[in-house]
Amino acid sequence: VAGAVILRPGTDYPDLDDSKKLTEKRRMALREVIMKEALAYGIGIVTAEEIDEINILNASFLAMHRALDQLQTRPEFLLIDGNRFNKYHDLKHVCVVGGDAKYQPIAAASILAKTTRDLVMEEYDAKYPMYHWKKNKGYPTPEHKQAIADYGTTPLHRMTFNMAIQLKLDFN
């Protein structure tokens, strides 16, 4: 999941910060503010199948492009969180490592991405409660790995993520 946000010029949101530094409750509250007050925003999602087909890095770029495709306002310039990006149309961009702690639009995009991912994980948890996605948010916790060993994978699992788990399952 990736987010893209254009904040209104001249506005300052002192509570915006790196989404990893905020509580889940605070992120959800800021999500509402961002979606209500931003000049434009977009959220891009890729599937586990797409990640397996094109790899996680290219899937990240695809999610970013999908988020940008949703913007109702064309940005003049792109601030990208991270160290790499595939050019988007003719827009100039700069990559900023740790950008979500330095620039409010990146922080806002990060919050939208993380909260969307969390909401998706809650939907997945309702369908497949044995994997505890509501709790682990898709991270390969020992509990989640055990659930894969006990129940196998679902169509929502990435098959290329952890080959050690797959090999272990294949040999048991």
Please tell me about this protein's structure.
With 172 residues, the chain is mostly helical. 48% of the residues lie in helices and 10% in strands. It is built from 7 helices and 4 strands, in the order E-H-E-H-H-E-E-H-H-H-H. The strands form 2 sheets. A two-stranded antiparallel sheet has the order 1-2. Helix 2 crosses helix 3. The longest helix has 24 residues, at 104-127. The protein is globular and about 55 Å long. Mean pLDDT is 92; it is low at 163-172.
Give average pLDDT, whole number: 92
Task: Tally the helices.
Answer: 7
- Amino-to-carboxy terminus distance: 33 Å
Structural class: mainly alpha
According to DSSP, the number of beta strands is 4
Task: State the share of residues found in helices, binned by percent.
Answer: 40-55%
The poorly predicted ranges are: 163-172
Inertia-based shape: globular
Largest sheet: 2 strands, antiparallel
Query: Strand sequence of the main sheet, in spatial order?
Result: 1-2
Query: What value does the Rg take, in angstroms?
Result: 17 Å
- What is the N-to-C order of secondary-structure elements (H for helix, E for strand)? EHEHHEEHHHH
Strand content: 5-15%
Topology:
Blueprint: E1 2-6, H1 24-37, E2 40-44, H2 48-54, H3 56-69, E3 78-81, E4 93-96, H4 104-127, H5 133-136, H6 142-151, H7 163-171
Parallel strand pairs: 3-4
Antiparallel strand pairs: 1-2
Helix pairs in contact: 1-4, 2-3
